[in-house]
Amino acid sequence: MIDQSIKRKIDHLSVPSRLKDAMQYSFKAGGKRLRPILLIASYEAYGNDISKVMSTAIALEMIHTYSLIHDDLPAMDDDDLRRGQPTNHKVFDEATAILAGDALLTYSFECIAEDSILTNEEKVKLMKWLSRASGPKGMVAGQILDLQAENKAVTIKELEEIHTLKTGELIQFAVIAGAYLGQATEEQLEHLKRFSHYLGLIFQIQDDILDVTGDQYKIGKPIGSDELNEKSTYPRILGLEGAINQKNAYVTKAKEALAKAEVRESRLLSLTEYLTQRDY
Question: CB within 8 A of 46, min separation 6: which ones?
């Protein structure tokens, strides 16, 4: 449903065909669609008709995809593969990939702004939260801290800050935005912020573990790239067993926060289990 909705959104754009092709390419490669699924799951914990959140879910996945296109560029991680397919700049060219990412970032906010189901107040709040989560106080800050941490030792606290910003902010937006549109209370939203904070760390620590133990055919890119690029990771700092123990501690805290938000039996709980055990 998410894939079809994104395809329709981009297909209906009256823009140069090469730009449209580059925008669509990175979506056609697939992906877990974790962030929009989290947003929908969070909404379903409190609300009913998911049409209320579809435009916001699509916008969120557009921003995530833009970040992946830019992450793969030679100036950043310089990756040749993403989800088992050649990266965007390898198929098109570097300039086109940059512009495709720029287009997805900016178009995401238009998707929210033109949603006829949302109230004006909801639109403003969502766009404010999303721009903060993805901008210089959120994901972009985490990306530059991640680059600066290469080739040097960092503490667990510094690593948590990097991942809270780079990965966790968009995950937190997904959870909070869905619950907000589902009419969750302020108290419930506070507990969900804590839940999503730990969920973001669980996602990243499992990524780090898979870079050591994973199957590159399932992951869609070579394993060991973090070590090759001398990135700071949980296994590098704590060892593999220590990283697994740290992940389990995060899982316990995430489940405690979810229970306090009165979401004991839901897709959010199932997704927490999935992120803990995923193999790609």
Answer: 179, 182, 183, 184, 188
Separation between Cα atoms, residue 140 and residue 165, nearest integer Å: 8
Q: Give the Å distances, CA to CA, from 52 to 44, 119, 123, 178, 250.
A: 11, 10, 12, 9, 31
- Enumerate residues 6+ apart whose C-beta is below 8 A from 122: 180, 181
Report, as an integer, the average pLDDT of 119-146. 97
Summarised one tens digit per residue, pLDDT across range 91-111 is 999 999 999 999 999 999 999
47: enclosing H helix or E strand: none
Structural domains of the chain in order of their starting residue, each with its CATH number: 2-277 (1.10.600.10)
* Residue 64 CA neighbour count, 13 Å, CB half: 24
Helix (H, G, I), strand (E, B) or coil at 106: helix
- List, in sequence order, every residue forming a beta bridge with 86; answer none if it has no partner: 81
**Dist. CA 136–CA 155, nearest whole Å:** 22
Mean pLDDT within 186-209: 96
User: Model pTM?
Assistant: 0.92
Q: In terms of DSSP H, where are the helices of the chain?
A: 2-11, 17-28, 34-44, 54-71, 88-91, 94-113, 120-134, 139-148, 156-163, 169-181, 186-213, 216-219, 225-228, 234-260, 267-277
